[in-house]
Amino acid sequence: MHELETDSSHDAPFDRLGGEEGVVRLVDRFYELMDTLPEAATIRAMHARNLKVSRFRLTRFLISWLGGPPIYQEIRGHEHPRLDPYHHPFRIDEDARDAWMLCMRQALVEHVDDVTLREHLADALDGIADHLRNVP
């Protein structure tokens, strides 16, 4: 996935979210929601009992994707990070995609005050989530 496109006249979304601390808060809330919302049970079941590794990976991906330091590439390689191979073992259908986005949209609502930025991020993440579907 390519880094999130931004308007050069504005700070990167990474900076607008509060840097690494802001991304960590967003990811933490995302996984709290995944752990507690009944509607997220299908995607929660796709994850390990302990979410430490998932939190680490999503945080690193988002930091890089949002225009922060390229730490995801340092972990996964310098070519464009590809999420598909890591998700192929899982049955990701429309319901799973929607459950993931339900948690992410709620986390964005709670942690991104800038409505325009929030909507931009939600739309971009929705595109990524849809791309990762591997079941019609």
Automatic annotation (TrEMBL):
Keywords, ordered alphabetically: Heme, Iron, Metal-binding, Transport
Pfam families registered for this protein in UniProt: Bac_globin
InterPro entries on file: GlbO/GLB3-like (IPR044203), Globin-like_sf (IPR009050), Globin/Proto (IPR012292), Hemoglobin_trunc (IPR001486)
Family per record: Belongs to the truncated hemoglobin family. Group II subfamily.
Protein name as catalogued: Globin
